[in-house]
């Protein structure tokens, strides 16, 4: 009697399982079989970050080199390097140094005149180590001039870790953009 009960219970379980499978078999397909098809609704996709170019000069980033993105990044995956224009090193400036005593010289006393009213910065490199990035978005939120955005690069693939270390400035200058245009960029186009 127990074996007949187990058999009926097993058959009922099989019928329920086949019912679920049958229903899923006739439903429309939701998944995309890449590479035969590609996803078309990437409007809300957040990939790695990228620099936003200026509307009037697409070779120059909107970045003001404040370093807030680098400071707030919990993963430490952002690194930017820039140089100052308008400031010359004391050795290049030439002039007399102020001596405070024997072999004691006041640093920076050899510069000519007063410092410039405005110091321009030039961005030399903006690197992202995507291997470390946690995609938290703090850098994009913190940027005071909205010079960062998320890319729409959903098909990012590589064979080594080095493939995911990006120089975002070079990518921007080469026109490798996968994100939406800025409002100003859309109006200019």
Keywords:
alpha+beta, three-stranded antiparallel sheet, two-stranded antiparallel sheet, 6 helices
Rounded radius of gyration (Å): 29 Å
Q: What is the typical, i.e. mean, pLDDT?
A: 81
The number of helical runs is 6
Uncertain regions spanning at least 5 consecutive residues: 89-93, 181-189
Give the class from helix and strand content and strand pairing. Answer: alpha+beta
- Could you describe the largest sheet, including whether it forms a barrel? 3 strands, antiparallel
Protein model, in words:
There is one protein chain. This protein is of the alpha+beta class. It is 28% helix and 17% strand. The chain is built from 6 helices and 7 strands, in the order αβαβαβββαββαα. It has helices at 2-26, 68-72, 90-93, 138-142, 168-174, 183-188, and strands at 49-51, 78-85, 99-101, 104-105, 120-129, 148-150, 165-167. The strands form 3 sheets. Strands 2-5-7 form a 3-stranded antiparallel beta sheet. The protein has a two-stranded antiparallel sheet with strand order 1-6. It is elongated and about 110 Å long. The model is unreliable at 89-93 and 181-189 (pLDDT under 50).
């Amino acid at each position: 009697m127990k074996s007949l009960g187990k058999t009926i219970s097993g058959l009922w379980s099989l019928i329920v399982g086949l019912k679920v499978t049958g229903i899923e078999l006739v439903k429309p397909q939701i998944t995309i079989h890449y590479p035969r098809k590609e996803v078309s609704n990437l409007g809300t996709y957040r990939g790695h970050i990228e620099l936003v170019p200026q509307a009037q000069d697409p070779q120059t980033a909107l970045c003001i080199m404040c370093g807030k993105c680098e400071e707030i990044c919990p993963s430490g995956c952002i690194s930017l390097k820039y140089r100052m224009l308008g400031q010359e090193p004391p050795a290049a400036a030439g002039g007399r140094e102020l001596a405070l005593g024997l072999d004691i010289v006041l640093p920076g006393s050899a510069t000519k005149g007063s410092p410039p009213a405005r110091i321009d910065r030039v961005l030399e490199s903006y690197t992202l180590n995507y291997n470390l990035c946690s995609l938290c978005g703090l850098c994009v939120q913190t940027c005071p001039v909205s010079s960062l955005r998320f890319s729409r690069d959903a098909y990012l693939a590589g064979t080594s870790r080095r493939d995911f270390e990006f120089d975002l400035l070079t990518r921007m200058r080469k026109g490798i953009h996968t994100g939406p245009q800025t409002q100003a960029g859309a109006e200019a186009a």
